[in-house]
Amino acid sequence: MLLKIExxxxxxxxxxxxxxxxxxxERGEIVSLLGRNGAGKTSTLKNIIGLYSxxxxxxxxxxxxITTASSRARVLMGIGYSPEDSRLFPELTVAENIKxxxxxxxxxxxxxxxxxxxxxxxxxALKNLYNRLANNLSGGEKKMVAISRALxxxxxxxxxxxxxxxxxxxxxxxxxxAIKTIRKDLxxxxxxxxxxxxxxxxLADRAYIIERGEIYFEGTPQQILQDKQLLTLVGK
Length: 236
Ligand SMILES: Nc1ncnc2c1ncn2[C@@H]1O[C@H](COP(=O)(O)OP(=O)(O)OP(=O)(O)O)[C@@H](O)[C@H]1O
Ligand SMILES: [Mg+2]
Description:
Blueprint: E1 3-12, E2 15-25, E3 30-34, H1 41-49, E4 56-61, E5 64-65, H2 71-77, E6 79-82, H3 94-104, H4 108-113, H5 117-122, H6 139-151, E7 157-161, H7 169-186, E8 189-194, H8 197-200, E9 206-211, E10 214-219, H9 221-225, H10 228-234
Parallel strand pairs: 3-8, 3-9, 6-7, 7-8
Antiparallel strand pairs: 1-2, 1-4, 4-5, 9-10
The chain binds adenosine-5'-triphosphate and magnesium ion.
């Protein structure tokens, strides 16, 4: 098991955001975390990367208890995170944004020698954009940069928050292929928060549905597609 979350409770102010939330990701898997707006997808990913702290429960990564580890420690252990709103620095170029991961690790030498070909291999479109300011990118291009930045430190687990949200069907297709290439050629497992089952079903081996902070269903995307009641929680 690469990642295991057990019985996470997360409260922020007076809101209970996650309730006994449990899920796992095996090595080599692409897993989708589905649910409607406000269900708790982003909060689950933030608990995994250490931006939110649970009051109860346990997070295990590569057989180590990381429940109270810093975000930086988790990144250095091999968790990559591409946030929902991309969070690029608008006045930095594409290349500089991608290299930010190295500065987090205080590994400037590696940043200087980072081979951009790795990012281009996953997203060929970045080849023509790498000197452009992030401010001047489309939403889809920003998402490519955010994913590439998360990949720069060779993560074993990639957390993607709504990486396909708002993209045209053609771009969704190319992102699905890119995520499959990330697994195949870079060997990373992927946990993908998505509100759209049709995007997730293109590539996920397994899926969870979260509803009001609780895991409501665990199975395959195909099982969800065949179940009208489950579709009301994730369909669009
Ligand atoms: N920092 C916070 N302070 C207060 N409430 C929060 C905070 N973060 C999340 N919440 C609440 O927790 C619930 C789950 O939010 P979360 O962002 O995890 O949902 P989501 O499934 O990612 O939704 P979306 O599809 O809109 O991205 C929501 O009711 C949200 O308002
Ligand atoms: Mg979200």
